[in-house]
Design goal:
Elements (H helix, E strand, L loop, with lengths): L2 E6 L5 H16 L5 E6 L3 E3 L5 E3 L12 E4 L15 H12 L3 E5 L2 H7 L7 E2 L6 H7 L4 E2 L5 E4 L2 E4 L4 H14 L1 H10 L15 H4 L6 H13 L6 H8 L3 H12 L3 H18 L4 H8 L4 H16 L1
Parallel strand pairs: 1-2, 1-5, 5-6, 6-10, 7-8
Antiparallel strand pairs: 3-4, 9-10
Helix pairs in contact: 1-5, 5-6, 8-9, 8-11, 9-10, 11-12, 12-13
């Protein structure tokens, strides 16, 4: 049974903790065993939302298959020093050096940085903290505007709800994508997003509905957006007629399946272009036959945004 030890700091954000903890707890309920523990440097921890939590002072025995998670704390700006002791920093370093994994949510990356675990690695954090964290830990490489980054058993996430995405990813790594999908469905979390997706993505904007048919089709498109996906194939995946699919999907998301796929392609292409790809290369990578369609969609999207 893999162990997950959450290290709690004063004024931590409840969702930074509760989101990942719920993922692993739900996985437990579904038969994917995890042993959860909550450790802090004092027995009581006040949260940013005013709830007081109790934690154990002693660390459990951890091995190479186990995970330490540091949730974030209230931090519109980084404090002069992260609120962890030298002893805790050593625990983080030793666990990683012995083959274990460490993860952070939001400003929790500051704790990993203080332990030296960001040096020489790619990492991310909440978009409001990226500049400060990049300046504080220049030996690492900050990755901006993504949900989470995995590098050499150091997993960092953007903050708040992205901790759920991070934990679902870890469940998928440990038990497979089907297990992660079961957990997400049990939690009524349909936006199962990848780490390189934007912190504000079309997947999230158009998942705020409860249509199971639309969610099943979105799962297919999200995974295979760069492929040709005929409406008939999507309808078969959802178990409905093409006409019903178009009606239900449009009612739920405000978009046709094709427009949703184009939006995902466009968003991914913009991300690639922003990281140095040419328009032609980006168009090819996201599934367009040539760059003309991408240029038309970019122009239309720019016009709509400016209007």
């Amino acid at each position: 049974m893999p162990k997950v030890a959450f290290f709690l700091v004063p004024r931590l954000h409840l969702l930074d903790l509760a989101g990942p903890a719920q993922v692993f707890s739900t996985a437990n309920d579904l038969g994917y065993a995890y042993g959860l523990s909550y450790v802090a440097e004092s027995e009581e921890i006040s949260t940013a939302q005013g709830v007081v939590l109790k934690a154990q002072r002693d660390w459990p025995s951890l091995g190479r298959d186990d995970l330490i998670v540091v949730p974030g704390w209230r931090s519109p700006r980084l404090s002069p020093r992260p609120p962890i002791s030298a002893g805790t920093r050593q625990v983080l370093r030793s666990h990683h050096a012995n083959g274990g994994s460490v993860a952070s949510v939001c400003s929790g990356a500051d704790a990993l940085g203080a332990a030296g675990l960001l040096d020489g690695r790619r990492y991310t954090t909440h978009h409001e903290l990226t500049d400060e964290l990049a300046a504080r830990y220049p030996q690492g490489s900050i990755v901006r505007d993504v949900l989470y980054v995995v590098h050499d058993r150091v997993i960092t996430s953007a903050g708040i709800a992205s901790g759920i995405d991070l934990a679902l990813h870890l469940v998928a790594v440990e038990h497979g994508a089907e297990a992660a999908a079961r957990v997400a469905r049990e939690m009524v979390v349909y936006a199962r997003r990848n780490g390189d997706e934007l912190q504000e993505s079309a997947m999230l904007r158009h998942r705020g509905h409860l249509s199971d048919v639309a969610h099943r089709v979105q799962d297919v498109i999200d995974t295979r957006y760069a492929e040709r996906l005929p409406l008939a194939e999507l309808a078969r995946a959802a178990g409905v007629s093409e006409r019903t699919l178009t009606r239900v999907f449009t009612t739920a998301t405000g978009l046709t399946p094709l427009r949703y796929q184009q939006l995902l392609r466009l968003e991914r292409a913009e991300h690639l272009i922003g990281h140095g790809a040419t328009v032609e290369a980006a168009a090819r990578l996201v599934g367009f036959e040539d760059a003309r369609m991408l240029r038309r969609l970019r122009a239309r999207d720019h016009f709509a945004t400016s209007a």
